[in-house]
Amino acid sequence: MVQRFDVGARMSEMAVHNGVCYLAGQVAVGGAKDIAGQTREVLAAVDALLARAGTDKSKILRAQIFLADIGDFAGMNAVWDQWVVPGHTPPRATVQAALAKPEWKVEIVVTAAL
């Protein structure tokens, strides 16, 4: 059985199947302008979705990070490094990409075990 959360016409925010939680790309919607603030907002959204599925960041299987400007890599990493659980850092890829809205600086996609 596939369980979907926050189902919309185009996409769901999260799907759970067979012990794995798949999140849609999370972006900052709270108004933060800088990379640190946007990264904090995105990671808080990840935390909230994982909690709804009954899991947490210590069980992340992989993360994909998209930066509008790779020059923000260090600023994003400063927030990420404080957020991840030591000893449970997931496999991760970070790339520069054109994001869907010009105000978005970071988008993060996470897959986690339940």
Structural features, described:
This protein is of the alpha+beta class and 114 residues long. It is 26% helix and 33% strand. It has a single domain, classed as 2-Layer Sandwich (60s Ribosomal Protein L30, Chain: A). Strands 1, 2, 3, 4, 5, 6 and 7 form a 7-stranded mixed β-sheet that branches. Helix 1 packs parallel to helix 2 (73-83). It is globular. The model has no long low-confidence stretch (mean pLDDT 97).
List strands and helices in order, with pairings.
Elements: E1 3-7, E2 12-17, E3 20-23, E4 26-27, H1 35-53, E5 60-67, H2 73-83, E6 92-96, E7 106-113
Parallel strand pairs: 5-6
Antiparallel strand pairs: 1-2, 2-3, 3-7, 4-7, 5-7
Helix pairs in contact: 1-2
Strand content: 25-35%
Computed over alpha carbons, the radius of gyration is 14 Å
CATH first level: Alpha Beta
Largest sheet: 7 strands, mixed
Number of strands: 7
> Which residues sit in consecutive blocks of at least 5 with pLDDT less than 50?
none
What is the first-to-last residue Cα distance? 14 Å
Sheet/helix structural class: alpha+beta
Q: Which of globular, elongated, flat, extended, rod-shaped describes the shape?
A: globular
CATH superfamily: RutC-like
CATH topology: 60s Ribosomal Protein L30, Chain: A
